[in-house]
Specification:
The structure holds 2 protein chains of 2 kinds.
Chain A (H helix, E strand, L loop, with lengths): L9 E2 L1 H6 L6 E5 L6 H4 L6 E2 L17 H10 L7 E5 L5 H12 L5 E4 L2 H7 L27 E2 L1 H7 L5 E5 L3 H5 L23 E2 L15 H9 L8 E5 L4 H13 L5 E4 L2 H5 L14
Parallel strand pairs in A: 1-5, 2-3, 2-4, 4-5, 6-10, 7-8, 7-9, 9-10
Helix pairs in contact in A: 4-9
Chain B lengths: L2 H13 L12 E7 L4 E9 L6 E9 L2 H14 L4 H6 L2 H8 L1 H4 L3 H33 L1
Helix pairs in contact in B: 1-2, 2-6, 4-6
Classes of the chains: A alpha/beta, B alpha+beta.
Chain lengths: ~280, ~140
């Protein structure tokens, strides 16, 4: 049976259980539902809230280097700490946090396969106790947006080229333009529905099984290559704000070993609200 | 309410939701939410005969703790209240009611139910106007 391209980036629940007291490992819970951690978490795990901790609070961007250093130092994470992310929704927000850590080049960042759901399904221990580890002294380089992050104008050029791939990981209804948001939702949605021209529709959750673990290398390869998303191409993935597409970025980069994958975090909330950008819409309603 | 009290307040409403389920008879059934992120709240609204006060409101939904707890809390807050009062409810008021320190990073989740309720009230009024117009045209 084929192996994942980078199996070392994926750990299972048994590995986490064996390393709960490993001083070189920090287990980090990153959820969409921020009150899940308070209801119970893996013993020793700390919480990172992608909104409060990883986002700039004024500009739509991620935290700068100084704040990244402060955050990791406060959490007791050192440059050589092995950080293991897990969370709800099939590790959707865990991969988002990992992606931000990789913008700063953190060396050893992994995902616990199956996430919070699998840990709980196995009847593993949960605790409400919040660890109080000593602060560390984390040193980060300047954030590197060039390798794994794509911006709007880069995407605009990308779709004009041949030999590249664009993956829309949203639901089919969002891809077709049938749905941008639910009616009357405050501060939500986009002015236009549809997708970026040339995008292949491969919903992010198709990469996981019912128990929230990732599908096999063979299944993942078939899922993406059948739609022209192959390792020889420069690939960009997007969704609404880049969180679902970070999951796909993780799959393509680490599980399938694609050498050139970027996450367009502006995603549909930027593209669908921008003046003059091309849109394809298949929904006629 | 300190942070821990706010968390416990929200968890109580999440685990023991009040006014949870459809309503019959109902004046308006209004869906709200962000299917992309998974938070869905449907508000069921019954207005009094005078048309100016909430007689009963319930909800159903799926999603994160904050969005579902907020819906439960909202239904307790607004029952029997004038519609005009709901019009004046600011989303910041809702965030304060839930515990700003806990929910401030999730304003969409915290205000989903209130936004959906406001939409339900708007639809109720529009339906009433249409019904009155139809009645007046029929009478001509």
């Amino acid at each position: 049976m084929a192996e994942y391209a980078h199996p070392e980036v994926l750990v299972d629940t048994a590995w986490v259980a064996e390393h709960l007291n490993d001083p070189n490992v920090r287990i980090i819970e990153s959820n969409e539902d921020i009150l899940l951690y308070d209801q119970g978490h893996i013993p020793g795990a700390i919480k990172i809230d992608w909104v409060a901790d990883l986002n700039d609070q004024v500009v739509r961007d991620y935290l700068d280097r100084e704040h990244f250093e402060q955050l990791l130092s406060a959490k007791g994470i050192s440059n050589d700490t092995t950080v293991v992310f897990y969370g709800d929704k099939n590790n959707w927000w865990a991969t988002y946090a990992l992606w931000v850590f990789k913008l700063y080049g953190h060396k050893d960042a992994r995902i616990m396969n199956g996430g919070r759901a699998k840990w709980i399904a196995e009847g593993q221990d949960l605790t409400k106790q919040v660890p109080s580890d000593a602060a560390s002294s984390y040193k980060a380089p300047e954030r590197d947006d060039s390798t794994i992050r794509a911006f709007r104008d880069e995407v605009r050029e990308h779709i004009k080229k041949s030999g590249v791939a664009l993956v829309d990981v949203r639901s089919p209804q969002e891809f077709s333009g049938e749905r941008t948001h639910m009616a009357e939702y405050p501060q939500e949605g986009t002015l236009r529905g549809g997708h970026i021209p040339t995008a292949a529709s491969i919903p992010w959750a198709k990469a996981v099984k019912e128990d929230s673990t990732f599908k096999s290398p063979e299944d993942l390869k078939e899922l993406y290559s059948s739609q022209g998303v192959t390792p020889d191409k420069d690939v960009i993935a997007y969704c609404r704000i880049g969180e679902r597409s970070s999951h796909t970025w993780f799959v393509l980069t680490y599980l399938l070993g694609y050498p050139q994958v970027r996450n367009y975090d502006g995603s549909w909330t930027e593209w669908g609200n921008s003046v003059g950008l091309p849109i394809e819409k298949s929904y006629q309603g | 309410m300190d942070r821990q009290e706010a968390i416990e307040f929200l968890l109580d409403h999440y685990q023991n939701p009040r006014n949870n389920g459809p309503l019959d008879p109902v004046d308006v059934t209004m869906p709200g939410g962000n299917p992309g992120c998974g938070d869905i709240v449907t508000i069921y609204l019954k207005v009094n005969d005078a048309g100016d006060q909430i007689e009963r409101v319930t909800f159903e939904g799926t999603g994160c703790t904050i969005s579902q707890a907020a819906a439960s809390i909202l239904t307790e807050m607004v029952e029997g209240r004038p519609l005009a009062e709901i019009d004046d409810m600011d989303f910041n008021d809702m965030i304060d009611q839930l515990g700003r320190e806990v929910v401030s990073t999730r304003p969409r989740c915290a205000t989903l139910a209130l936004g959906t309720l406001k939409a339900a009230i708007t639809l109720y009024r529009n339906n009433k106007i249409r019904a009155e117009l139809d009645a007046s045209q029929t009478g001509v």
